[in-house]
Amino acid sequence: MKTTTIAIEKGVSQELAAYRSQVVSELAYTLHFTIPAVKEQPILATESVSFVLSENKSPLQLDFKENTDHLKRLIVNKKPVIIDHPKPTNR
After folding, report:
1. Alpha-carbon span 22 to 8, nearest angstrom
2. How confident is the model at residue 80 (pLDDT cuts 50, 70, 90)?
3. What DSSP string runs through 13-66?
4. Closest Cα partner for 85 from 8, 12, 16, 23?
5. Spans of all domains in the chain
6. Is 68 helix (H, G, I), strand (E, B) or coil?
7. What are the tens digits of pLDDT across the range 10-34?
């Protein structure tokens, strides 16, 4: 089984977009925001991403344009997993 290795870059490279278009289908997002009345309080948000993955030979990169310390939890198939949010190589 061949593993596809794609460099972690800022944004979505053409290579990553092409790979994801081959293995990801039925992509859907659900966003929920809690916006406080007091401007100085943080906006809380959740994002649910659902899709069909046609092959699982390589790690699937999801791009989060956010600081790692703002990512509180990652759940995959209803199970908590460790957040692996490395810095891009092309900063």
Report:
1. 18
2. very high
3. -HHHHHHHHHHEEEEEEEEEEE--SSTTSPPEEEEEEEEEES--SSPPP----S
4. 8
5. 14-81
6. helix
7. 888 899 999 999 999 999 999 999 9
